[in-house]
Specification:
Blueprint lengths: L12 H13 L1 E6 L2 H11 L6 E6 L9 E2 L7 H10 L4 E4 L3 H4 L2 H7 L7 E5 L5 H4 L1 H10 L7 E4 L4 H9 L5 E5 L8 E4 L2 H12 L10 E4 L5 E9 L4 E9 L2 E3 L3 E4 L4 E4 L6 H21 L4 E12 L2 E8 L6 H8 L4 H10 L13 E8 L24 E4 L2 E4 L2 E4 L3 E9 L2 H12 L15 H4 L4
Helix pairs in contact: 2-11, 8-9
Length: about 450
């Protein structure tokens, strides 16, 4: 250590260290490249606690709210290098695959990363989404209401075929592993269900369907509810209803999501209380008993069956396009929520939700969810009203032009006093954005406008 000049004030090394730690904590990295990640980064960047937001790899839209870093997030060593080089203090994992692959465990077990805060469950906890069979066994073990089911492999195929015969149509088949949102089939004919079961076990969805869960069909109306938990405490984020089918009136093929509405009329305080007491609290208690380190989001795909909630599926991250609307309804510092979550102090966080309604309309490429063109130039973004939030899902920058790079391209979210007002604003502004082949649903939220409990 250099000698200190008696005429000068001695250097306060402890204060310098605290300043360094603060500077690190104020930098956030969001992993992912879709509309969900754009919405998360947009919300985090609003916080006074955050000095800089990085998105890896990001898209043309995320570049407007932070700094994109072009890396392969499946390569955890690359992620580590970015975290250390940029002195990042908080990492938010957007998509499910890195969580299922164990990125949280990688951070915890790396001597250079173990003090970096990360939002997401460990590898075992990520099996709530990574394995339908694991999730079903977990729900059965901890008394969480869900549809009855039977798990099938090639070894017990005949038992699976017999189980199908005990059910009433429609028949639900779910690939056990991650299948890019395509591993769930709902079939009306028994013979068709049996044939599809055989195809799935023969590799229709690759290794994801080496094991298949046959599930009882639940009749009701679906809703997505989101929880942020530090493993002990929890916060219930705004709920949303999303729309999966490509066509108006819920027709056509399933997609990753064509739009969303939040709040949902039938999610009353009484319904929320049932979800919290019957599902959320038992889930968190079950995670603790299983010694699962869970500091992150729990997505509850629920079916409202005559006022009673049943779990259709768990996800271990936020939904898309629900996140695009949900983030706009959080009226408090979201970065504080994430920080308190990572520290196990979520009960100390300030949290407030806007009473306004959000409607999100997803603009997609022509041909999606089947084959579609990429590289279509996008224009008209400057004509969108500042009152709308535009989240890029599948875009990239090419020679100073923003072009399409995916099936789902842009999500337009608007607010209003009710669904009708929010819909009008969202659709008016969705029309301002132009690209060849642009497609979208025209009925997002219409079913809820006339909903009566």
């Amino acid at each position: 250590m250099y000698p200190v000049d008696n005429q000068q004030e001695a250097v306060d090394f402890k204060a310098l260290q605290e300043q360094y730690i603060t500077a690190v904590d104020r930098k956030v990295l969001v992993l992912g490249s879709g509309g969900r990640e754009h919405a998360l980064a947009w919300k985090i960047a609003q916080s006074d606690r955050v000095s800089r937001v990085y998105i890896a790899p990001g898209n043309a839209g995320t570049a407007s709210v932070g700094t994109n870093i072009a890396i392969n997030i499946a390569d955890f060593q690359e992620v580590k290098d970015v975290v250390l080089q940029n002195r990042i203090g908080l990492v938010v994992v957007g998509p499910e695959q890195p969580l299922v692959d164990g990125i949280v465990d990688f951070f915890k077990n790396d001597k250079d990363l173990k003090d970096v805060k990360i939002i997401g469950p460990d590898k075992k906890g990520a099996q709530l989404e990574g394995s339908k069979a694991f999730a079903k066994q977990f729900m059965e073990k901890y008394g969480i209401p869900t549809a009855k089911c039977f798990t099938v492999t090639a070894d017990n195929l005949n038992e699976g075929l017999q189980y199908l015969e005990t059910l009433e149509a429609p028949y639900v088949l779910k690939a056990d592993g991650l299948a890019a949102g395509k591993g769930v089939l709902i079939l009306n004919e028994l013979d068709n269900a049996k044939a599809e079961l055989k195809e799935m076990l023969s590799g229709k969805f690759g290794s994801a369907s080496a094991k298949v869960v046959i599930e009882q069909f639940l009749k009701g109306i679906e809703v997505s509810m989101f929880v942020l938990t530090d493993g002990k405490n929890h916060v219930i984020l705004p709920e949303a209803k999303d729309y999966k089918r490509i066509g108006d009136g819920d027709t056509g093929l399933n997609t990753g999501g064509m739009g969303a509405v939040s709040p949902v009329p039938f999610v009353t305080p009484e319904f929320v209380e049932k979800v919290e007491s019957r599902i959320i609290k038992p889930t968190i208690e079950g995670l603790k008993k299983e010694n699962i380190d869970y500091k992150g989001f729990i997505f509850l795909g629920l079916m409202n069956c005559d006022g009673d909630p049943y779990v259709i599926e768990y996800n271990v991250r936020m939904g898309d396009p629900e996140t695009e609307g949900v983030m706009t309804r959080i009226d408090s510092d979201f970065a504080e929520l994430l920080e308190k979550c990572a520290l196990g102090k979520l009960n100390e966080a300030h949290y407030k939700v806007s009473p306004e309604t959000s409607v999100t309309v997803m603009l997609v490429s022509g041909g999606y969810p089947e084959s579609y063109k990429k590289g279509m130039k996008i224009t008209g973004l400057e004509n969108v009203c500042p009152c709308c939030i535009v989240a890029h899902a599948g875009t990239k920058l090419v020679d100073n032009d923003i072009v399409t790079s995916g099936g789902r391209v842009i999500a337009v979210t608007a607010h209003g006093k009710n669904i009708e007002e929010a819909r009008e604003t969202a659709y008016h502004n969705a029309k301002q954005i132009v690209f060849e082949g642009k497609n979208y649903r025209h009925d997002i939220g219409l079913d809820l406008m006339n909903y009566h409990a």
